[in-house]
Amino acid sequence: xxxxxxxxxxxxxxxxxxxxxxxxxxxxxxxxxxxxxxxxxxxxxxxxxxxxxxxxxxxxxxxxxxxxxxxxxxxxxxxxxxxxxxxxxxxxxxxxxxxxxxxxxxxxxxxxxxxxxxxxxxxxxxxxxxxxxxxxxxxxxxxxxxxxxxxxxxxxxxxxxxxxxxxxxxxxxxxxxxxxxxxxxxxxxxxxxxxxxxxxxxxxxxxxxxxxxxxxxxxxxxxxxxxxxxxxxxxxxxxxxxxxxxxxxxxxx
Length: 253
Ligand SMILES: [Ca+2]
Ligand SMILES: [Ca+2]
Ligand SMILES: [Ca+2]
Ligand SMILES: [Ca+2]
Description:
Structural class: alpha+beta
Strand content: 25-35%
Low-confidence stretches: 6-13
Helix content: 10-25%
CATH class: Mainly Beta
Mean pLDDT: 83
CATH architecture: Sandwich
Number of strands: 11
Number of domains: 1
CATH topology: Jelly Rolls
Largest sheet: 5 strands, antiparallel
Bound molecules: calcium ion
C-alpha cells in the first residue's frame, strides 16, 4: 500500500511535465509552381500537388533556411519530422530525392550565374542539364559551395525514389521522415548555433507536392530532484512487484 502511495505521488510529479511538451511547426514557403507555373502534373492530369507546392525541379538543388527558432527555456528536443505532402514523381523515369540538414545556408539579394536570388529563405542552383536527368547524384554530398559555405555543418538525412501517381505500386500519400536520435542531437547543435537551420533538397526528377512541413517536439529537461524521485519510484515499483509475486507464489503453496 505504501508503494502505491509512492507511485501515485510520482505520477503527480511526472504528469505535469508531460503536459508541457511543445510542438514547433515550420511550413515551407510556397514557391512558383513546378513546371509551367502549374500545381497540376501535366503527365497525370488526375493529380494536383496542391497550392502550397514547393518547387522540386530535377534541374535544380535547393536550400530552405529559416531563423528565430525558439526552443522553450528548460526544454530539450525529443523528436523531429520532415513531411512532404502529396509528393509524387513527374513521370515514370528513374528518380531520386536527396535531403540534407544544414546548420545554415547562404543568402543572396540577386541571382547570379546558375544560382537564384534568395526568396522567402529559398535559394536554387542549377545542378543538372538534359531531359530527363539521367545522372542521379547528391549535390550536397559534392561541391555545394554555391548554396552552402564549406565550414557549414551538413548532415545527410535520406534519399528516396517516388513513383508517379497511377504508376504500379504507388499510393498518393504524405511521406514523413523521422529523425534518428543522433540526428536530433545534431539538430539541437545546429539550432543553438544562431537559432537557425536549413534543409538541402536535391530532386533528380520533378516532384509534385503540396508543401513541406518540419515539426520539432520538445519537452522539459527533467531536473535532478525529479530524476532521483523517478529512480526511487522505479525501485519501489520493483520491490512492490517482487512482493506481489512472492505473495502469489506463497498463496499457491
Ligand atoms: Ca537536381
Ligand atoms: Ca544554425
Ligand atoms: Ca543532383
Ligand atoms: Ca555538403
